[in-house]
Specification:
The chain is mainly beta and 175 residues long. It is built from one helix and twelve strands; from the N terminus they run E-E-E-E-E-E-E-H-E-E-E-E-E.
Amino acid sequence: MSATTTEVPAGTYTLEPVHSSFGFAVKHNGVSKFRGQFEDVTATLENGVLTGRAQVDSVKTPIPTLKDHLVGPDFFHAAETPTIEFRSNDIRISADGTVELDGVLTIRGVTQPVKATGTIAAGTSMSGEEVLGLELEATIDRRDFGINWQAPLPSGALAVAWEVTIEAQLELTKG
């Protein structure tokens, strides 16, 4: 059974990777969303602070050959900046389980403030451990992080939108 919580839980919670995901969605060709995710991710909620890290070279998309372009200098530049990192500054939880989270996001070595919104729920796992579920979403302009690659389409539209939605579904276990 899960329930909403109105306070950031005390203690240390660590990511349960099998039941978690971290990825992105971006408008492609001006008509549909293209999604990707990172498979090597860590996260911790400790003393009211959520931190997370994704290994850039673990990026995966429905087009396997796209990985080389994404980890290269046009996008994430994994050779120079191998991780994406996040650290919260403030977590606000409403009575209905919605959450607003302020923090800083670092991509390509550039750190920018970011606000995420979503939901939080608390529960107990099958083995009796305390668990938290956080579903978060934030929208960024990728140019703010030095990701400026673009290809104009014949219509004049952009191949890949500047605005990117970051999506995190986290299950964290107290331990």
